[in-house]
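Morning. Coffee machine broken again, so started the prediction first thing and wrote up yesterday's gels while waiting. Chain of 177 residues, entered below exactly as on the submission form.
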Amino acid sequence: MHSDAQIRTTEDGTNSSNRILRVAVISEVVVTREALALFLAGEGNISITSVASSLREIQGKHEEGPDVALIDGLTVSTEDEQAPARRMRLAIFGLMPRDRTSILKWVAAGAAVFVPSRATKPELLIALNAAARDDVACPTEFADIVIRDARKLREWNSEPGHAKLSPREREVLGLIG
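Came back before lunch.
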């Protein structure tokens, strides 16, 4: 689904490889998804492939799916999205540090890029390009939440009598710890 071409990001957030970055914008809020699509549409290397209310809605619509799904983390449920999410690179926007549970659910669903609602256009473009490269990008306060939770889980699992991690939990912990 994703091209192996390397995507390089310039200082202003655009990609310097002349490769088109295919982006799906997903939010249950029509105004939010339409505004984000318009916001990104003017960028030379961005192609909006889908504007939808869920990842499931875009599954199978295109021969080649998007490189990145830009998802409204406040309105889209991780439970409904986990199967498609595991096959797609995700950039989650709109969450705040107080949304600890949502952040951790999106990490478990495979997200590694988080864009706060206060992000500027260059920051959003940098985040999308990071997601396309299968890289990690998030505000420090989000990383703190994930690392603290991973530490607690690691300590808890090392105590006698506690359940061991599943293979997927070990994989996620290895990615963040």
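Residues 1-10 have pLDDT under 50 and may be disordered. Going to sketch it on the whiteboard this afternoon.
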